[in-house]
Amino acid sequence: MSKLLEVKGISKRFGGLQAVSELSFDLNEGEILGLLGPNGAGKTTAFNMIAGALRTDTGDILFDGQSLVGKAPWDICKLGVGRTYQLSKPFGGLTVVENVMVGAFVRTRSEAEARREAEQIVDFLGLSDKAGIDADDLTAVDRRKLELGRALATKPRLLLMDEVVAGATPQEAGEMVELVKLVRDRGVTILIVEHVMKVIMGLSDRVIVLDYGKLIANGVPRDVVNQPEVMKAYFGERYVQSRT
Ligand SMILES: Nc1ncnc2c1ncn2[C@@H]1O[C@H](COP(=O)(O)OP(=O)(O)OP(=O)(O)O)[C@@H](O)[C@H]1O
């Protein structure tokens, strides 16, 4: 399996706080990798370094063999790294299709082409009947789908997804999980941050766990969640001792 992303010893310090410390991991082409860790573990910081929103203090990030360090978010997106945000904020006053077109303009200057691609994506997301409504009028779950659509329109090979089911009902979460699987089936490699364990377990081929900015586990979801280090990070030392 070829490596699409190689993260090599990246670190980030904010003042006195070491948010990410010498983090290394690989992501294989076609894989869904879950990024886990308790609040404040450094997941978003790691994401932001890969997407170019934050500069790394140390280390390198290779995408398809090419270093992303020092590149602007826009250029990283053009290379094929898309991202979704935890808080999806559609452009109000634009329709659902027009919102997705914004993503498509990363790849094309033709309005007709952007519209055609956006319509296909809106259809894929199951939002065709809402294509012409103001994006501000969408429900929370449909906004999440739109967020995914905007990212897909940039034609990513790697998609960084931040908490796709936050605030969703179990049924809506199930819908999002199915959509993410379909995105992978279209050939997109995925790195996903998610707090809902059931979602991560159901989606990820492999998971990595961060705690205080350090990688503490890397493996198949079922093995990783039972590792004492991981339980300690999530539930504390006492919980682990009470189980052993
Ligand atoms: N711009 C910043 N300036 C200062 N400290 C920051 C900044 N961004 C993040 N931090 C701190 O860095 C640490 C890691 O934060 P980060 O948001 O990466 O964690 P996280 O794992 O994504 O957490 P959560 O699950 O709560 O979103 C936290 O202690 C946070 O307060």
TrEMBL record:
InterPro entries listed in its UniProt record: AAA+_ATPase, ABC_AA/LPS_Transport, ABC_transporter-like_ATP-bd, BCA_ABC_TP_C, P-loop_NTPase
BP GO terms, sorted: D-alanine transmembrane transport; L-alanine transport; L-isoleucine import across plasma membrane; L-valine import across plasma membrane
GO molecular function, one term: L-valine transmembrane transporter activity
Keyword Cell wall biogenesis/degradation included in the entry's annotation: no
Domain ABC transporter: from-to ranges: 5-237
Keywords: ATP-binding, Nucleotide-binding, Transport
SMART domains registered for this protein in UniProt: AAA (SM00382)
GO cellular component, one term: plasma membrane
Name of the molecule in the record: ABC transporter ATP-binding protein
Organism from which the protein derives: Ectorhizobium quercum
Lineage: Bacteria, Pseudomonadati, Pseudomonadota, Alphaproteobacteria, Hyphomicrobiales
